[in-house]
Amino acid sequence: MSTQSATSPTRRFAWLSRWPMFLWLTVLWVLLWGDLTLANVLAGAAVAVLLLIVAPMPAVGYGGRINIFALIYLLVRFIVDVLHASIQVSAQALHLGRTPHGGVARVRLRSESDLILTLVGVFTSLVPGSIIVEAHRLTGTMYVHVLDLGVTGGADGVRRIVLDQEKRLLYAFAHPDDLARAGLPRRRWWGGGRTEDDR
To answer: What average pLDDT score do residues 194-198 get?
Structure first.
């Protein structure tokens, strides 16, 4: 009886209940390839299904709420950051201007949420010229490699950029109580003003 229950249709198709993760993995695949085509979407969907069946990830708790205005601001700023960084990386690739000097900066996030940590890593890595080389879940610490520290304002500039990204994500997805624990005012979703931690 136990063998039958272990292979029951309910368990076998349990991954279907993880459709938000399926959608996220598919979108992430398309973003990484940078080309919105039917073939890319289908390939991303196939990879997402394979990952959910072969290597199911533990569920990440989410007790926040979505602020639609902060979410729109987050996406608009992200697009602007990607375009701006793309121009900078292109100029460096064409040897226009100064020689880039890369480096790694250590950033300690305010939030203790696994979801926010993951999203900060994804959004930061999708901006050309920067990538997360290491992340510590227990301490909320990230090590970010950038192509040119001079453009970002050194290690302090990298920290400010990543913490601003985290701030926008918190305002878009976090519960007001989580904002308070992170030391952020509730009505500053547009990113104006800084907390003591930012200085």
So the answer is: 44
**8 token code pair:** 């029951």
State CA 121 to chain mean position distance: 4
* Residues found in the chain: 199
Residue 16: both structure tokens together: 């279907």
The verdict on pTM exceeding 0.85 is no
User: Encoding tokens for residue 124?
Assistant: 């930061």
Answer whether 197's CB lies under 8 Å from 181's CB: no
Q: DSSP code of 111?
A: -
Q: Are 110 and 128 in contact (CB under 8 A)?
A: no
Measured in whole angstroms, how far is the alpha carbon of residue 53 from the centre of its chain? 23
Give the strand order in the sheet containing 103-108. Answer: 103-108, 141-146, 130-136
- The rounded distance, in Å, linking the Cα atoms of 114 and 121 is 11
**What is the residue type of 98?**
R
Question: How many Å apart are CA 56 and CA 98, to the nearest integer?
Answer: 46
The DSSP call for residue 138 is T
Give the pairing type, strands 103-108 and 130-136: unpaired
